[in-house]
Structures are given as C-alpha cells and as structure tokens.
Amino acid sequence: MVAAARWIAKLSGPCLAQALQMYPDFKIKVVGHSLGGGTAALLTYVLREQKEFASTTCLAFAPGAAACMTWKLAESGVHFITTVINGADLVPTFSAALVDDLGSEEVQNWRSNVETQVKTCQNELQGLKKGLDSKVEQLKSVYQENIYVEDKPFHSFKKIARSLGYTDDDLPLVSFQLVSKGYYGECGKRGGYMEITGFSPEVREQIYKAASVNLCSNVSGQILASLVMNPPKISAGDESFESFMSERDGILSSLARRAKVLEEAFNSLEGITCNKAEGAMYLFPRLHLPQKAIGAAQAVGTVPDAYYAKRLPEATGIVVVPGSEFG
C-alpha cells in the first residue's frame, strides 16, 4: 500500500497542482474503501508532505489502514483522516502486529498437540483419546498422496476420530488442502480449500468473513482446487480418467525416484546423514558439525545449524534453511 500511495502521488501530483492553481478555493479530499482506504490514508500523508497539498484530507470506508502504519502515525492523522467503520466488521481492527501475536499464541497452544496426535493416529489409535477433548484441531493434508513407503499409509485425522466415536459435538476440526505442493499442481500455484466441522453457525460466519478478506486465487489455481475436490472418476464415465491417472502416477513415481536419488546422495557425503525419504517433498539431512563450529555458534548466542546456514551463503553462495526452524 505504501508503494501504491507513492506511485499515485507521483503520477497525480502535477495534475493536482495544476488544478489547484486554476481553482485555488478548492481542497483535495482522498476517498477509499477497504485496502483502497488504507492506501488513501497513506496517500494523504504523502501529499501533505508537500506545501501545496498541506490541506489534503481523507475519507476512508472500512479501511485496512491499521495494518499499514504505526499507532503513533495513525494518531497524528486524526484531524485530517475520517474513517467510517461498521461496528461488526473485524477487518479494520486488525493490525499486522495483532495478527502475528494471535498466530504465535495459537501456535504455542496447539501445534505440539496436533503433531503428537497425528503421529499417534498413524501408530496407536487408542492413545488418541487422551488428546481429543476441548481442542480445535487444525490439520493440513497436503502430502497425503505422495507417500513412498507401503507400510505407512496416510490416515485421515477426521476419519480416525469418527471411527473412535467422536462427532462434531466432541471435536471442532479444521482440515486444509492446498494445490501448491501436492502432485495436482506445482510450487507457485495458489489454490486450496478448508473444511470446518464442529463449529457453531456464528463462529462459521466469522471464519467465512475472515477468509473472504483474502484475494481470490488466479484462474489456474481455482481450476486445480476444483480438480483436487472432484478428480475424474471411472465410475462417472469421465473420458479424461485414463489420462489423469497416467499423469498422476507418472508424477508420483518421479517424485519418489528423485527423493531416493537425493537421499542416497546426501548419505554418500562425508559428515552428513539423511533420514529415509518416506513421502512429501522434503528431506532432512543432518550435518555432523565439528565441536569447534558448535563452540563458535555458542559464542555468538545462536544454535549451530542456524550459524552454519548463515555462513554457508557467504562461503559458497548456497542458501539452506536450518532444521531447528522446523521445530
């Protein structure tokens, strides 16, 4: 929004200055709605930096301004920026800091529980009972198709919960599916869906409102999301079923083959071991760092793998992500 505001100011500045010379009694008022409201507020600040536009005012309807400026800056504009907000609209009350704080709090509360319960679902169903009460479970099932080992099939959290007798009244559950990393699409494709069960109509309405704030995915992303939810079926007589299955199986076998090649390559390197590739699109190699490198990391107050990851681009130009970032 800041870039947009500066771009608009640069293009419109000469025209506005000429208009004010022709009509000196006129005043400039910038008007915007939603994200445009946030941009309008920022544009007003930018224009008022110039002497000839110092009297510019702004009228913003349901602006997204809170997320684009500090509280101190927002307070400085109370005399020349007027906002109109529906009292029930949550979006204008959000800020980037608030969203980050909320996300951090939620992650701390449920992330470790979810990971533990999903693993338990795969190995020991009975152990799941201890963790199902009074939680909202949020699960992302992106890699349920590309599994490379036969003895570890994918287990749907919802299906297992239902088999244990838990209903919507017992377990609020949110399930996500994306096309950007599954075999249906490729990285960079944006599209997906979420299923929410066990929530009251009032909560569902607020979730739908929050989801509706996001921009729509592009056409190809929407087509891929539709394919995820409703792939070609032989039972329906779909003509594309055979070609779909052929392409699907080809992609999955290619992913499995490349994962195995990389796994073997990592394990062949001195000082590196790699866990077996069992699915998804990740490998987790372990670098056995010498004690001197570990000591150097401790001396600067960071974990060894993060220290290594920061030094590696400087020495080789290779960028990696430290494993500690994955928990």
From TrEMBL:
Gene Ontology MF, one: transaminase activity
Keyword Transferase carried by entry: yes
Keyword Metal-binding: no
Pfam family, one: Lipase_3
Keywords: Aminotransferase, Pyridoxal phosphate, Transferase
Coiled coil: none
SUPFAM superfamilies reported in the protein's UniProt record: alpha/beta-Hydrolases, PLP-dependent transferases
GO terms, biological process: lipid metabolic process
Chain ranges of the Fungal lipase-type domain: 2-96
Cofactor: pyridoxal 5'-phosphate
Transmembrane portions of the chain: none
Assembly description: Homodimer.
PANTHER family reported in the protein's UniProt record: ALANINE AMINOTRANSFERASE, ALANINE TRANSAMINASE
The protein's name in its UniProt record: Alanine aminotransferase 2 mitochondrial
